[in-house]
Amino acid sequence: MVSKKHWAPTANVEVGEVRQSETGAWVVSGRLAPNGTCPECGTPSRQRHGWRCRRIEDFPAQGQAVWIELRVCRWRCLNSDCRRRTFSDREAAVATPYARRTSRQAQLLGHVAHAAGGTPAERLLRRLGIRVSDDTILRQLLRAAQVVPPRARIIGIDDWSWRKSQNYGTIIIDLERRAVIDVLEDRDVVTCTDWLRRHPEVEVISRDRCGLYAQAARKGAPQAEQVADRFHIVQNLRMAIEEQMNLHGRATGRALLSDADNISTASNLLKSRLAHRKSREEIYETIRALRQQGLTCSEIGRRTGFPRRSVAKWLQFETPPDRKRAVLKRSSAWYFEEYLKQRWENGIRSGNALLPLIQERGYEVSVRPDRPAAW
Ligand SMILES: [Zn+2]
């Protein structure tokens, strides 16, 4: 037979009555110790100031929910020197303040939620006789996770202004949990060193390039590895890029070139084409000369490095062959070169303005509409 004491959620609860409600749930009436002890001065008291009933859910029994109706008393402190006049029963072992379920049931919810997740845990617990929503289960899981005392392995340390430009403190952050661990009142080597000595679990310290924190880390946490924080690495990179851009002032692309530069680019292109043509003339003359010596195409090819078929083809020409440009189509902006040149000289130099003009003249945008590339 189950005795009354088996219904008690903890050993310090004395069970008075167990009854079944109309809904089938079990209701257990219980109370705590018949006297209290002042948490301030430790004086025991039997003088009751008042009481209240706290209703909390416990483990289910026989497929039904179990509710504990706990009588929580408030006692008078009998010590006249004590600053506390009254105090309440300590029911922390049964349930945390304001909780609607006993600590042991909350712990069970946490375990099931951890194994099954929110909604599956809700379904499973309902079959076990605990009606609880998945939101509550997840809240309980979160609460249990927060109770774990954080032992920061990887920390970030930086200065932090109590008042900008006037006084600065030091902020220490747990980088794994992204949470502030501590705020020191100043940015002094001694203060930081002391803090680090009190936290030997620190393995990595992310810091700025200021020598202060480097010194504190060397003294207070010699076991820890020091790394530069991301902000300062990116800042360094940005400064290096800016420096390079300033050194090469015109490395900003063709769009910003002046007219004089554009003309110089065009003349360079012309020079290169002329040089190319000249070299073709030289090749042509060489091949012709070798042929006049009575050499075969294969022999000329071996001496000049050109394929035999190319040599034979070149020997058919009266003059050096000019480079042939592919037949232009309306899908190429080069098809409208002359027209675009005129517009450019008239001052229309924006791709967005030129595009509709050539579209009117039949420019076929193929797959992706874009500005005429060369313009
Ligand atoms: Zn007291």
From TrEMBL:
It comes from Albidovulum denitrificans. Gene3D superfamilies: Homeodomain-like. Residues 282-344 form the HTH IS21-type domain. It comes from the Bacteria. This is Transposase.
